[in-house]
Specification:
heterodimer, A: 363 residues, mainly alpha, ABC transporter involved in vitamin B12 uptake, BtuC, 2 domains, two-stranded antiparallel ribbon, 15 helices, 2 strands, globular, B: 355 residues, alpha/beta, Rossmann fold, six-stranded mixed β-sheet, 11 helices
């Protein structure tokens, strides 16, 4: 006997829309089971995990800080994946954006003025886009697999940052510790409501980017091009679209957004360059993009949910004394159930009795 | 369904409130760790200190911790969370938490902060550190006695003063026994990377070292020594379980007494921001039992340990720098400030310090 996935004739609109919610509910149920196995009251634990973090103003700010880079990067990635361009290297574009954007405050720390920050942000976007242009060029010119090139460039970027902060950009007064000077106030991304919490402009950029990209994809010719080239390049070719242009467009746009996320994180939340500036935002954003079903507005919601799983993980750690791995388990379950639900909406399982001896034995 | 959900939520909320109300009678002390408490090294030792506080002060305190906290924005959130959850004293245990902790300390003047291994302080933020170099001096002496070839391998993380100071102290100890002792150094650029540490240990042994020490946190190097039938030292915690035939001793961090003292000070209302650097004398640095060595070596190590506990500093002149220029005159003792900014090797170390 074996199991087979068989494609369903049509996909149910209702269940497609419901799928993320069903997945979330299943995650909650599995989470409750996990907490009771750990000997904690599942209801109290889930309350601490998912509700307590959004009942306090300062924590909502923290949620925004955590979600902003995820949303910014994921929105760019959604354009790539819609165009069937597999940019896996957002983490590297994030880092290079942060580095190029930091040139001003690190190399010229005495430069002050209102123009410093906007210039930093623009340079961050240029850095990310330029770094994304490398795999785009390799794909367009040599038909290289962009999954490999973009992923491998992540390590190049991380090691370059590591070298910079230990070598030429190290703070001369920092006791040989690997970090740059602290950014001056005019190079720091402003906090939105300093009295309440420390959320910065990054979340505003993320929301604006999400809306703009949503308009781009669903309402413009360029968006149509992206969608057509993604689903049927041959048809797109007949319509006069060129594949290489789409590849470059998708890579440059997502690279620029990842670079912007990078410089926002460094200038807003960290305040200096360090050997490691991202806990894997570029990779987590891939999850966010798919949880949001490659729809920029869905991605906003997905980014917030994923950020909540981080904060909730810390809440249960301090309130119930469970391991920090709980948050990872929750993220894993969420992704598992989302993929599972999606698969079962498009396919159904058929049990096939295999011909031959072992089938007979099994039955 | 909706009603049921509402009922469940209010119950959960009530449970939550009840828990906080009860907690307010106790003093809450909190810790932020950079690694997992299961690393059996640096963060593990800090957590042992936390458990000692729970044991010593019993029902007067309540403790909490966050592990595996990344340096940067996540660290700032961790400190802010603890400050808002009613912690009265918060210990940050990694150098990289310094700026984040200082920022949060500025926002919560009524909460006491303590930061390990840093150099910035505030009215409500003190710093503490341990003189690990004292233990390393003793280890250097043991190495010089036990090595047949007169060559030790030293695996190091980053060229910060703390690490450079340790290399120099180890070498001073070795030279006091064997003036021609050689040290081979490998930088792995990480505090915790068992794979890299094991590779470095293998390379060092292949190049002729027959004894190994490290300023990185995993047990990997010592395990390589165990496999090859050679010798080595533990780091941060007693690693004898991982290398019963190879470990000579381990330079162990013992934070418990300090943590108990500081939490007590908050309870008594006598807490003041301070800057302490504790050593063998204060039992903050402990050498785990001397094993796998003959009795005369053991006696020598115990004597050196006692001498340091009685107040002698391994950095007592005459000591020359690597290039031969004078560092300390005969009888001169290095002050703490010089040690905390140390960025040069002493004479006899054949390696170029990464700058």
């Amino acid at each position: 006997m074996r199991l087979e996935l068989v494609k369903r004739p049509g996909r149910s609109k209702l269940f497609s829309a419901l799928s993320p919610f069903i997945a979330f509910a299943l995650t909650l149920i599995a989470g409750a089971i996990m907490f009771s196995l750990l000997g904690k009251s599942p209801l109290a634990a889930l309350h601490v995990y998912f509700i307590e973090p959004v009942t306090q103003l300062w924590q909502i700010h923290e949620l925004a800080i955590k979600a902003a880079p995820l949303i910014l990067i994921a929105v760019g990635l959604a354009v790539c994946y819609r165009a069937n361009v597999w940019n896996i290297g957002a983490e590297g574009q994030f880092v290079i954006g942060a580095i190029l954007g930091s040139v001003l405050p690190v190399v010229f720390p005495d430069t002050q003025g209102a123009w410093v920050l906007p210039l930093m942000l623009v340079m961050g976007m240029i850095g990310g886009a330029a770094y994304a242009a490398v795999p785009a060029f390799l794909k367009a010119r040599f038909n290289t697999n962009e999954i490999l090139t973009s992923l491998m460039l992540v390590y190049v970027a991380q090691l370059f940052l590591d070298w910079l902060v230990r070598g030429p950009w190290r703070d001369p007064k920092g006791f040989n510790f690997p970090q740059t000077v602290q950014f001056s106030p005019s190079a720091t991304l402003a906090e939105l409501l300093p009295m309440q919490g420390r959320a910065n402009l990054g979340i505003v950029f993320a929301l604006v980017a999400a809306v703009l990209v949503w308009v781009l994809i669903s309402k413009t010719l360029k968006g149509f091009e992206v969608r057509v080239m993604g689903s049927s390049p041959r048809a797109g070719h007949f319509a006069g679209f060129r594949l290489n242009r789409t590849v470059f467009f998708a890579f440059l746009l997502s690279g620029a957004l990842a670079g912007l996320a990078g410089i926002c994180e460094v200038s807003g939340a960290i305040g200096q360059l360090q050997p490691s500036i991202s806990p894997g935002y570029g990779f987590t954003a891939i999850v966010v993009a798919f949880l949001g079903r490659l729809n920029p507005l869905g991605i906003v919601a997905a980014g917030l949910v994923l950020a909540l799983t981080y904060l909730g993980g810390e809440s249960v750690q301090t309130a119930l004394g469970v391991s920090d791995k709980v948050a990872r388990v929750f993220q894993g379950m969420l992704l598992f159930f989302v993929l599972g639900c999606d698969t079962l909406i498009n396919y159904h399982i058929r049990v096939v009795a295999s011909p031959g001896g072992d089938g007979a034995e099994a039955s | 369904m909706k009603k049921l959900l509402f009922a469940l939520m209010t119950t959960a909320a009530a449970v939550g409130f009840a828990a906080t109300a009860e907690a307010q009678e106790k003093l809450k002390a909190c810790w932020v760790y950079v690694g997992p408490i299961g690393d059996f090294g640096y963060s593990y030792q800090h957590d042992q200190g936390r458990l000692e506080v729970e044991k010593e002060l019993g029902d007067k305190v309540e403790t909490a911790y966050l592990e595996n906290v990344a340096e940067g924005p996540d660290a700032e959130r961790a400190f802010e969370r603890f400050a808002r959850e009613g912690c009265k004293i918060i210990f940050g245990t990694s150098f990289g938490f310094m700026d984040a902790e200082l920022k949060v300390a500025g926002k919560f003047p009524d909460v006491k902060f303590e930061h390990a291994t840093g150099f910035k302080t505030a009215e409500n933020m003190g710093i503490y550190n341990a003189r690990f170099y004292e233990g390393r001096y003793v280890m250097g002496q043991i190495a010089a006695k036990m090595s047949k070839k007169g060559v030790a391998g030293y695996i190091v993380s980053f060229p910060i003063p703390e690490v450079v100071m340790g290399i120099n102290a180890f070498m001073l100890g070795a030279q006091s026994v064997n003036p021609d002792f050689k040290l081979k150094i490998v930088w792995v650029n990480s505090w915790f990377d068992p794979g890299k540490e094991a590779d470095a240990a293998k390379a060092l042994f292949d190049q002729g070292a027959d004894i190994i020490t490290q300023h990185t946190d995993s047990t990997a190097a010592l395990q390589v020594a165990e496999e090859r039938g050679l010798l080595g030292f533990g780091q941060s915690s007693d690693m004898i379980k991982f290398a019963p035939k190879a470990q000579l001793t381990s330079n162990t961090d013992n934070w418990g007494p300090y943590y108990v003292e500081r939490v007590k000070a908050v309870l008594d209302g006598t807490w003041k921001s301070d800057d302490v650097w504790l050593g063998i004398k204060d039992k903050a640095v402990l050498l785990s039992p001397f094993t796998n060595m003959p009795d005369d070596v053991k006696a020598m190590a115990e004597a050196a340990e006692k001498k340091i506990a009685d107040g002698w500093n391994p950095f007592t002149g005459p000591i020359a720098k690597q290039d031969g220029s004078e560092f300390l005159k005969d009888g001169e003792v290095a002050d703490d400030k010089t040690l905390l900014g140390m960025n040069f090797y002493i004479k006899g170390i054949d390696d170029k310090l990464p700058q």
